[in-house]
Amino acid sequence: MPATPTIKKSSAPSSKPTAKTKAHTAAKAAPPVASPVTTSVTQKLAAIGLRGDWDFALHLPIRYEDETRITRIRDALPGVACQFEAEIIHNEITYRPRRQLVVQAQDGDDVISLRFLNFYGSQVKQLAVGKRLRLFGEVKHGFCGAEMVHPRYKLVAAGDPVPEALTPVYATTAGVVQLVIRKAIDKALANLTAKGAFDDALPETLRQKLRLNDFADSVVTLHRPPPSVPQASLMERTHPGWRRIKFDELLAQQLAMKKARAARDAKSAPRLATKNKLTKAFKAALPFALTHAQQRAANEIATDLAAPHPMQRLLQGDVGSGKTVVAALAAAQAIENGFQAALMAPTEILAEQHYRKLSGLLAPLGVTVTWLTGSLKAKEKREAIAEIAAGTTQLAIGTHALFQDGVSFANLGLAIVDEQHRFGVGQRLALREKARGKMQANATESQEAHQLMMSATPIPRTLSMSYFADLDVSVIDELPPGRTPIVTKLIADSRRDEVIERIRLACQPGLDGTKGAQAYWVCPLIEESETLQLQTAVDTYVNMQTTFPDLKVGLVHGRMKPTEKNEVMAAFVANDIQLLVATTVIEVGVDVSNASLMVIEHAERMGLSQMHQLRGRVGRGAKQSMCILMYHQPVGQIARARLKVIFENTDGFEIARQDLLLRGPGEHLGARQSGAPLLRFADIERDIDLLEAARNASDWLLKHDSMAADKHLARWLGSRQHYLKA
Ligand code: ADP
Ligand code: MG
């Protein structure tokens, strides 16, 4: 959006005055607000979390632009955004290839075309011949010479001075231009200063110990950098002002997490002591002994369950590390205390598998296990719900249907969520509500159920220190014995024939009549079209049947009815199917130990954790397993980096760490409950030193200066404070 010619930059003082005067200067230098900020703009700003003064004050620039220099058009470098100045010599609306405003402007001997595909009528008048423009953006050399598409521009008079300092660019929302945000920020800074509220929330001793920049000085410098500040330090966020802000942001996160944690510890939950009845019988019934890591995790969980506060523990362990039995043991502990347990899995296939395995182990011990998913017939569903409500069900296993309306537990003591990262925030919250509400029905005081979450997507240290800081974590860092490592191969899909041959060899029965191994063939992910993805899977299935007339080939995909899916999976488990063609629906949890070969087509399209999960479907038996990653040339740079990581690593922790480096924390946090506001400025990997400092400081503050902690938190959470309660 264009700026109007009447607007002048705010002058940044070049001396180093106090924060107070700076904030005032900035506010005064801004031109009088022509029309008060309209309600709709206020609403739009509120929608992106900008409501109170502190929200605006801490809405720091996402980047800076250098408008301090004017570059000649002929000196423009490809790919580099610069500022140019040129005079309009021509202006017309053309209709080919589509309606657009084309403006030609001259800078010395050079002429540049400016194209506007969307424009207002007023813009046509504004960009009249003879007007002078400051243009900001990248010059492209097209068919008609130099051009800029939708450049940011400003009308100026000849000789108007350029800004002396970098121009901040703010995150904004459609319909709110930079200038409006800038003014709102200036106003907020002035308000805070006038109220005398723009002080440092952190005690002097802490600031000195950590050598932190002054707070107000940091905020003002980052919003309105004086020319004396080295530009690179602003752009790269290494300036002491940035360090202070990043520290403060991380500190607020730590404080929020610790407060949430304290609030949880203040709530009550049923004490589920180890009675060594059902738990003992369950352990004795297992066909194997628990690994040390499993035992340790089980002990940690058992201790939490026996405490009178709701547990919130994450059980993390690589694929195949044996999380299910640990969870089942926890369920047994709830049941032997007369409470119900629930186990929720993200897919029908996985829920079914849990149901089969766990009822196989627990039903003989007298436990009533109920199965509830969305695909049950209405009558069966009604029955399951009735049993859960009556309390005859001791263990309920299913998909998120378990926590939908209409389902109410008689006395839920423990809720277990498998593959928790696969659930959305809404589903997690529904479970929380259920755990909370249903306990209240028959308890004297308000009690919550304990929660155990499981994930095979390991959380790197930096994440567990920050976003997951309020969770207790148990780690299973050891695989059950007798597993042979999976061999991973990277093969171009031009060598598909060799891959086919490998399947034939692996799956053929032994000469002595023993059954061969089983294999998965994972069809490519086609993000843009689910239909196409489905078609590819069906085509592959048909092809494989012709290619392997001696093998029984099966197919599972996401569009199949759950009962059909389950039938196919059951046949695969029973080795009635040797080759299973699948879409990525088999990604999580499926456990068939005789399957030792996996082929992943178009592996270059898949994410790291997805590939790791898929690969984890094999290598579950004693047989040497192999995972073949087929890629299709050309492979882009990021995809290449991913394939390299998955090829070189089998350790899920390392893969997750690399994933974080390649992609940022977004994915891990997809299903994180909204109690953790996202970090905007700090980067937990790059700023690990600050993260550590903030963690220690938060402990210190809560212990020694809880007023300061509250003040700090209130500023940073501002209007987002309600998230804490979610
Ligand atoms: P995940 O952690 O990926 O959910 P599972 O719980 O599905 O792993 O366990 C993978 C396989 O390992 C299952 O077949 C399970 O029965 C088996 N298993 C679990 N614990 C042990 C153990 N201590 N010794 C041998 N096998 C085990
Ligand atoms: Mg599992």
Verbal overview:
The protein is 40% helix and 17% strand. With 726 residues, the chain is of the alpha/beta class. It has a 7-stranded mixed beta sheet with strand order 6-7-4-3-2-5-8, with no helix packed on it. Strands 12-13-11-14-15-10-16 form a 7-stranded parallel beta sheet, sandwiched between helices. The protein has a 6-stranded parallel beta sheet with strand order 17-22-21-18-20-19, with helices on both faces. α9 crosses α24 (688-704), α10 (278-285) packs antiparallel against α12 and α21 (637-648) runs antiparallel to α22 (652-663). The chain is globular. The relative contact order is 0.10. The model is unreliable at 1-34, 438-444, 667-677 and 722-726 (pLDDT under 50). Bound molecules: adenosine-5'-diphosphate and magnesium ion. Residues 288, 290-291, 294, 317, 319-325, 456, 480, 589, 591, 593, 620 line the site of adenosine-5'-diphosphate.
